[in-house]
C-alpha cells in the first residue's frame, strides 16, 4: 500500500506540471499587457507585438474542450502543443495534419499498421512451428509499430511552430516526456543531459541486478521447500526467503527511483523553459543618485513664513533610485 501511495504521489507531481501545458498557448496571453504588446516575465527583455489571435488564446484558458480540439484540427482554432499531442495520441497522424505535413500521414499509418500486422503474422507462425526466430521477429515488429507511434508524437512537437525565440515551456515539457533530456537540449542546458540520462540508466541497472537476484533466491526458496528436490545447498529456506524479500524490495525501490528521476527531468525542463528569458546579467541592479526638491508631506509641522507664501518651502535633497 505504501508503494502504491508513493507511485500515485509521483505521478500527481508530473500531472500537475503537465496541466499547465494544456492552458498555455503558442502566444501566451499572460504576456499580453494593456498596451497591446507581448512582454516576458520580470527581468526579461521580450517585447513583441501582440498576436492577432488573442481571442483564441483567451478561450484556451477555460480548460480542456473536445469541441476546441476538433476545431483546431479542422483549422478553425489554434491548438497548444499539449492539445495537439493529446489528439495525436488518440488519432495517430493528427499532429501532422495540424502542422500541415500531409505527406507524413501515410508513412505513420504504414509504419504502425505494418508493425502490428507483422507482429500478428509472426505470432501465428511461432505458435504453429514453435521456432524461436518467429518469437524474436514478433517482438521486433511490435517494437517497430511502437517506434512509429512514438515518432509521430515527437515529430508533431518538433514541427509545431511558435512565435517566440525563447524556449516554449509546453514544447520543452513534452520533449522531456517523450525523450528524457531532450527538453533540456531545447532549453540550451546541454550539460544536464548526462545527469538525467545517467540517472535513468543507473535505475535500470539496479532494477535488472535486483530482479536477477530476486528470481535466483525465489527459485532457491521453492527448491528448498520441496522435500523431493534433494536440495543440499548451504543457504537454508528461511535465509533464501529473507534474501528474496530484500531484493524484491530493492527492485521496487529502483522502479520508484526511476519514476522520480523521470518526473524531475520533466519538471526541470518546464521550469527552466519559463526562466529562459530572465535577465541574469551582472547589470541586473543599478543605483541612480541625483539632486531633488522635496516637498514636505505635512506642512503644518514645518516652520515657514506664512506672510510670503501659504505653502511650505521645498527642501533640497538627494533622490536615490534603485532598479532591479
Short précis:
The chain is mostly helical and 324 residues long. It has eleven helices and four strands; from the N terminus they run H-E-E-H-H-H-H-H-H-H-H-H-H-E-E.
**Helix-strand pattern:** HEEHHHHHHHHHHEE
Strand fraction equals 5-15%
Strand order, largest beta sheet? 1-2
**Largest sheet features:** 2 strands, antiparallel
User: How helix-rich are the residues, as a percent range?
Assistant: 55-70%
Shape: flat
Feature tags:
324 residues; mainly alpha; two-stranded antiparallel ribbon; 4 strands
Strand-helix topology:
Blueprint: H1 2-19, E1 37-39, E2 47-49, H2 54-59, H3 66-73, H4 81-90, H5 94-98, H6 104-129, H7 132-158, H8 169-178, H9 182-187, H10 193-224, H11 237-274, E3 286-294, E4 315-323
Antiparallel strand pairs: 1-2, 3-4
Amino acid at each position: 500500500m505504501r508503494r502504491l501511495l508513493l507511485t500515485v504521489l509521483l505521478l500527481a507531481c508530473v500531472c500537475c506540471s503537465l496541466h499547465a501545458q494544456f492552458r498555455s498557448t503558442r502566444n501566451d496571453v499572460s504576456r499580453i499587457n494593456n498596451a497591446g504588446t507581448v512582454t516576458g516575465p520580470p527581468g526579461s527583455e521580450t517585447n513583441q507585438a501582440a498576436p492577432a489571435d488573442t481571442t483564441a488564446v483567451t478561450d484556451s484558458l477555460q480548460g480542456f474542450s473536445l469541441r476546441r480540439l476538433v476545431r483546431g484540427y479542422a483549422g478553425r482554432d489554434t491548438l497548444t502543443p499539449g492539445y495537439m499531442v493529446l489528439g495525436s495520441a488518440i488519432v495517430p497522424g493528427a499532429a501532422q495534419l495540424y502542422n500541415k505535413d500531409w505527406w507524413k500521414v501515410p508513412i505513420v499509418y504504414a509504419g504502425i499498421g505494418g508493425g502490428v500486422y507483422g507482429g500478428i503474422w509472426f505470432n501465428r507462425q511461432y505458435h504453429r512451428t514453435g521456432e524461436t526466430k518467429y518469437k524474436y521477429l514478433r517482438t521486433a515488429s511490435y517494437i517497430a509499430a511502437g517506434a512509429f507511434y512514438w515518432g509521430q508524437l515527437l515529430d508533431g512537437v518538433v514541427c509545431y511552430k511558435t512565435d517566440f525565440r525563447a524556449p516554449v515551456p509546453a514544447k520543452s515539457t513534452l520533449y522531456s516526456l517523450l525523450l528524457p533530456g531532450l527538453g533540456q537540449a531545447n532549453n540550451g542546458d546541454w550539460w544536464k543531459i548526462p545527469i538525467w540520462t545517467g540517472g535513468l540508466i543507473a535505475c535500470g541497472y539496479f532494477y535488472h541486478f535486483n530482479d536477477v537476484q530476486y528470481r535466483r533466491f525465489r527459485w532457491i526458496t521453492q527448491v528448498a521447500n520441496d522435500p523431493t528436490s534433494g536440495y543440499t545447498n548451504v543457504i537454508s529456506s528461511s535465509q533464501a526467503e529473507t534474501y528474496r524479500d530484500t531484493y524484491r524490495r530493492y527492485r521496487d525501490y529502483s522502479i520508484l527511483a526511476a519514476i522520480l528521476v523521470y518526473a524531475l527531468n520533466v519538471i526541470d525542463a518546464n521550469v527552466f523553459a519559463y526562466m529562459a528569458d530572465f535577465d541574469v546579467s551582472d547589470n541586473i541592479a543599478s543605483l541612480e543618485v541625483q539632486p531633488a526638491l522635496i516637498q514636505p508631506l505635512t506642512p503644518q509641522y514645518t516652520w515657514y513664513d506664512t506672510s510670503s507664501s501659504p505653502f511650505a518651502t521645498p527642501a533640497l535633497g538627494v533622490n536615490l533610485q534603485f532598479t532591479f
